[in-house]
């Protein structure tokens, strides 16, 4: 089973719903191979924050509509987001251009695929070891909306029992040390996000989404 939780801060206020954090369960959970999508959006230029909520919803909608495979669905969803931002930028003055980075995780049972376009951060904690992820491919370094072409940086992640996967805003990632992040992720799953929030509460805008693998099975989202 996967335990999922999230928090977001917007304008210095902790809110249940923010433009940065998205969770999109499969709209057909009874299908043969249901899959879910989780993401963090990061505004990359001044004025981009107001587009993040719309972008988040578009990525979730396209992923579930177009997915034939997890990676294929991720690629189509990110391409749609990229074209949306590019269309706006082509019709706007240079100083009004917008751009965003994303970390997107598609999950099916215990198998996950992480797709990132900068700026983006993620971390996996397993058996006392912390691994962090950021885009490294040249075509994934620039945010969506600016370049003619892009290609997300893909990573396969196994969410076996005891593993924790965290999507987080770059500002939050930069605000904590690797030792602090590992210590927080080693806590019981229900204590991880409160610990991270205490480190993040002075940030004006950020978010985090945690998946913790407890045992085999479908997603369980706490109320």
Question: Could you walk me through the main structural features you see in this protein, from its secondary elements to its overall organization?
Answer:
The protein has 5 helices and 12 strands. It is of the alpha+beta class and 223 residues long. The strands form 2 sheets. Strands 1, 2, 7, 8, 10, 11 and 12 form a 7-stranded mixed β-sheet that branches. Strands 3-4-5-6-9 form a 5-stranded antiparallel β-sheet, with helices on one face. Strand 7 and strand 8 form a beta hairpin. The longest helix has 21 residues. It is globular.
Provide a brief overview of the structure.
Helix content is 29%, strand content 32%. It is built from five helices and twelve strands.
Q: What's the CATH topology name?
A: Phosphatase 2c, domain 1
Structural class call reads: alpha+beta
Q: What is the level-2 CATH architecture name?
A: 4-Layer Sandwich
Shape: globular
**End-to-end CA span:** 15 Å
Tell me how many strands there are.
12
Strand content: 25-35%
| Radius of gyration (Å) | 16 Å
Residue stretches low in confidence (pLDDT < 50, at least 5 long) are 217-223
> What does the main sheet amount to?
7 strands, mixed
State the helix count: 5
CATH first level: which class? Alpha Beta
What is the H-and-E element order? EEEEHHEEEEEEHHHEE
Task: Spell out the CATH superfamily.
Answer: PPM-type phosphatase domain
**Helix content range:** 25-40%
């Amino acid at each position: 089973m996967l335990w999922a939780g999230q928090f977001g801060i917007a304008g210095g206020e902790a809110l249940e719903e923010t433009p940065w954090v998205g969770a999109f369960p499969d709209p057909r959970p009874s299908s043969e191979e249901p899959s879910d999508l989780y993401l963090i959006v990061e505004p990359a230029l001044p004025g981009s924050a107001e587009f993040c909520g719309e972008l988040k919803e578009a990525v979730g909608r396209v992923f579930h509509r177009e997915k034939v495979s997890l990676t294929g669905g991720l690629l189509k969803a990110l391409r749609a987001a990229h074209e949306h931002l590019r269309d706006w930028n082509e019709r706007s003055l240079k100083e009004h251009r917008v751009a965003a980075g994303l970390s997107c995780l598609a999950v099916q049972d215990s198998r996950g695929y992480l797709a990132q376009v900068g700026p983006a951060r993620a971390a996996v904690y397993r058996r006392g070891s912390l691994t962090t992820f950021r885009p490294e491919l040249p075509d994934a370094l620039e945010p969506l909306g600016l370049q003619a072409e892009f290609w997300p940086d893909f990573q396969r992640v196994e969410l076996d029992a005891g593993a924790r996967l965290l999507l987080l805003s770059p500002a939050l990632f930069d605000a904590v040390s690797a030792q602090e992040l590992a210590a927080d992720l080693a806590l019981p799953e229900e204590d991880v996000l409160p610990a991270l929030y205490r480190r993040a509460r002075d940030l004006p805008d950020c978010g985090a989404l945690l998946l913790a693998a407890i045992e085999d099975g479908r997603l369980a989202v706490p109320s």
